[in-house]
Design a protein that fits this description.
6-stranded mixed sheet; 5-stranded mixed sheet; mainly beta; single chain; Immunoglobulin-like; 2 domains
């Protein structure tokens, strides 16, 4: 670790009691945007509304000059341009992608980093070549255990200068049922710059840190990858010296389109008395969502919402809807999802030092105006 780098790149930390959002966090929030919750009305998120997280800089990338290598423990190394990849049979998958840090800013104490609330999510149709097709053509050696993916974005994090790199176990990367894509299109168009133009990895069911953008290299290794983004970042830790467990699959979550209309600053919702439709989307990377419950009294009582039939395949969120009779006064609406493996969103925060996987239920304060207002 370079001493000069540690002067500008500080260790991870947890906010002090009462500490507000810092200018650095505000700058990150301005740079990385979430999906407006009213965009939950779209089954397919428009690219400009899909959440964005860029660790370093968006690289300058010319599609015509871009090459991706497949090497390491392979018998037939590959060097492919975009035209080469487009010559393979393409696959399109609808995938709900969520940032691992979604919900971090709602934790107490707050881990200091990108201050997501609940909007770091989106669903897109990604088109590309199944990773397993490329790996089979490269003829992976028997001793390989992981595939390491390198993006072209370069920066410093906690004193470590690095390209963004992540790995996947070989069983995830190239199993018969693996749906991992080397993607070159989003919603039928070339990838936008902020979403990885011209190539990115798409790992259905996994949090966003696995979906390496600006993908330029795939290397097969005979030992687990121990780079920063794998062994230091993106781990569930309770303390700084806890080795933790890796962040992988997306925990279940339901989000509601906030009803009524908002106050500009507080975002508190305002509506008038009467029957009001409530709707949203729910998803899980572990198993299909099978139940969504709604509460209008901050979780004291619950009723089931109706789940629409899945659309777009097993990796996409599922639409839910119900109705609520609003009465004058203050209310807190809550949405909670359960998946087929029995995982349910918690009512209390699942705290960890990095603020990862916080799928605490969504709470929406609502003020219903008096009759006749």
């Amino acid at each position: 670790m370079d001493r000069d780098l540690t002067a500008v790149s500080v260790p991870g930390r947890v906010a002090r009691p009462g500490e507000g959002i810092s200018p650095e966090e505000l700058a990150l929030a301005a740079r990385n945007h979430g999906m407006p919750l009213e965009a939950l009305r779209y089954g397919l998120t428009p690219p400009g509304l899909h959440y964005v997280l860029v660790h370093y800089d968006i690289p300058a990338a010319e599609a015509a000059d871009w090459r991706i290598g497949v090497g390491g423990l392979v018998r037939n190394p590959l060097r492919l341009g975009l035209a080469d990849l487009r010559s393979y049979p393409s696959v399109t998958l609808r995938v709900t992608m969520e940032c691992a840090g979604n919900g971090r800013a709602r934790l107490s104490p707050r881990p200091v980093s990108q201050p997501w609330l609940v909007e770091a999510v989106g669903t897109a149709e990604w088109t590309g070549v199944p990773l397993r097709v490329l790996l089979r053509e490269a003829r992976v050696e028997p001793g390989a255990v992981e595939a390491v993916f390198t993006g072209a974005d370069h920066g410093v994090e906690r004193g470590v200068e690095q390209d963004y790199r992540r790995s996947l176990p070989l069983r995830v990367a190239m199993g018969d049922d693996a749906d991992v894509l080397v993607a070159y299109a989003m919603n039928g168009e070339p990838l936008p710059p902020q979403h990885g133009h011209p190539l990115r990895l798409v790992v259905p069911g996994w949090y966003g840190m696995a979906h390496v953008k600006w993908l330029c290299d795939i290397s097969l290794t005979d030992t687990p990858f121990t780079g920063f983004q794998q062994s230091v970042a993106y781990r569930y830790r309770q303390s700084a010296d806890d080795p933790g467990e890796p962040v992988t699959l997306i925990a279940p979550r339901a989000l509601m389109i906030p009803p009524g209309f908002p106050d500009f600053m507080s975002r508190t919702r305002v509506l008038r008395p009467g029957r009001t439709g409530l709707e949203g989307r729910a998803w899980s990377g572990h198993a299909p969502v099978v139940r969504v419950e709604i509460s209008s009294d901050d979780g004291r009582t619950w009723h089931d919402a109706a789940l629409d039939a899945p659309e777009g395949g097993i990796w996409a969120w599922r639409h839910w809807h119900t109705a609520w009779t609003a009465t004058p006064g203050s209310h807190v609406l809550v949405a909670r999802a359960t998946d087929a493996d029995g995982r349910t969103q918690p009512l209390d925060q699942p705290w960890n030092r990095g603020g990862f996987g916080n799928n605490l239920v969504q709470r929406i304060p609502v003020v219903c105006l008096p009759e006749g207002t």
